[in-house]
Amino acid sequence: MSTSSESGPGSARPIKKTPNDFVFGKVIGEGSFSTVYLAKEISSGTEFAIKVLEKKHIMRERKTQYVMREKEVLMKISHPFFIRLYYTFQDADRLYFVLGYARRGELLDYLHKLSSFDEDCSRHYTAEIVKALEYLHGVGIIHRDLKPENILLNDEMHIQITDFGSSKIFKNEEGDGSGENNEGSRRNSFVGTAQYVSPEVLTSKSASKSSDLWALGCILFQFLSGECPFRGGHEYQIFQKITKLEYEFPDGFCPLARDLVEKLLVLEPDKRLGSDEMGGFEKLKGHEFFTGIDWDHIEEVQPPALVPYLPATTSNPEHCWSTMKPGLTDKRIGEILTSHLITEQERKERLEEQAKTNEYHRFTEGNLILKQGFIDKRKGLFARRRMFLLTEGPHLYYVDPVSKVYKGQIPWSKELRTEQKNFKIFFVHTVSNNDIFSIIYRYH
Ligand code: ATP
Fold it and tell me: Which CATH class is domain 321-443?
């Protein structure tokens, strides 16, 4: 395999770089065939993400084509919403891709932490992806593996799309687009990620620009609801649902976004909003959900702060305030704990009683249950009912009440914080590895 030592796109003359031009810092990510390091260019002090690929590993795994494709695409693109390739070089053992550093990491991490994004964030980030796809398709490239994991974020929280190993360059040198549906030798290879793959890739094994629009529909659904539209225990089940267009909107899904998702998740590729047959990107950008987006300056506007989506739903009526004092506030926790101060004898008796009569006793590691009750642990618009057990310790265990399976416990620490959202909903913020995780709960 050979890769020339060269400059990145747009440079006037090739500058030969070597690993000695950089100081390598921490590992910021690992792919199947690569390790990505944070590195500093000695001459300029600029930080880069350097993707390092072991030649032997790539050859052994027969991924040469994948790597070359990624390099070819990265060299072809130059747009603020894509990771920029600055230099490539190699030594005897490794290939080096010097990339712009997306300091804020993966959009997927934010989605995991918040479970979902509110309407404003979803609109903004969907619009950034639309703008990026418009550019990408315009230069003759189909991404084919668009998903929140492949959307990184720069310092200003704008998107930086990455991972072009599965991409396809469909425009030939004359730019006539004749290669769009020509999969050549790749016709039978499944490309992409199960949850986001379009039906035509599964049925006819051919991807077109419209396949990226399908993925866009899946991503918007996920932004607002917290889950992919097509889910299943294994890939086959997911594929079945995709080819049958079997998915449901959860209660509370924003109606305008729903209309857009329904126009993107269409089985026939040429009937998807945004496809050439349906009026192209201009039509897509004109959808009512995008009202208020400044398409000409979206690269410059400050993206809205990421916050979770908590709409009023039938099971969560925001208008239904009550005089009753809800909430597991610090004060309330203190009250619960101190109101249960008991003698050792009382404790022993109650523990014996608990062991005999309480089916959840076995999950509490011998601790006395002080309070228990059902709470819905939310992930986006989806809720999972759990039995919560507040015990001595203190511990806050939760158990699946149907399968009677222990699911976990909320780590109790000084940093544990609750926040009341409304009558029904509260957050529990916990800290792990210096990161704050916010879980949303609903009283049952
Ligand atoms: P695979 O090859 O298995 O699909 P991948 O495409 O995620 O994995 P890489 O492109 O090597 O593999 O990236 C590995 C991880 O490194 C990414 O998940 C991302 O978190 C991080 N990463 C990659 N490029 C950058 C970048 N330019 N800036 C910041 N982080 C990056």
Answer: mainly beta
Residue 34 Cα: closest atom of ligand 1: 11
Per-residue pLDDT tens digits for 264-289: 999 999 999 999 999 999 999 999 99
- Distance in Å, CA 420 to ligand 1 centroid: 37
Q: Does the 6-100 domain belong in CATH 3.30.200.20?
A: yes
Is pTM beyond 0.70? Reply is: yes
Planar angle of CA 348, 352, 355, nearest 5 degrees: 135
* Residues 45, 56: Cα–Cα separation, whole Å: 31
Please tell me the distance between residue 76's alpha carbon and the centre of ligand 1 in angstroms: 19
Give yes or no: 294 in active site: no
Q: How far is the CA of 87 from the centre of ligand 1 (A)?
A: 17
- The two structure tokens encoding residue 433: 């590895």
Our CA angle for 160, 161, 163, nearest 5°, is 130
Contact (Cβ atoms closer than 8 angstroms) between residue 150 and residue 161: yes
- Whether the bond into 14 is cis, omega within 30 of 0: no
Ligand 1 pocket, Cβ-based, cut-off 6 angstroms: 28-34, 36, 49, 51, 83, 99-102, 105-106, 152, 162-163
Q: What confidence tens digit (pLDDT) does each residue in 246-255 have?
A: 999 998 899 9
Ligand 1 atom 15: residue of nearest CA: 29
pLDDT, tens only, 371-398:
888 888 877 788 888 899 988 888 899 9
Across 162-194, b (16+ Cβ under 10 Å) vs e yields bbbbbbbebbeeeeeeeebeebeebeeeebbbb
Which residue's alpha carbon is at the smallest distance from atom 16 of ligand 1? Answer: 29
Residue with the smallest CA separation from ligand 1 atom 22 is: 29
8-61 pLDDT, tens digit per residue, is 444 444 568 999 999 988 888 888 889 999 999 999 999 999 999 999 999 988
- For 105-290, the fitting CATH number among 2.70.150.10, 3.50.50.60, 1.10.510.10, 3.30.470.10 is 1.10.510.10
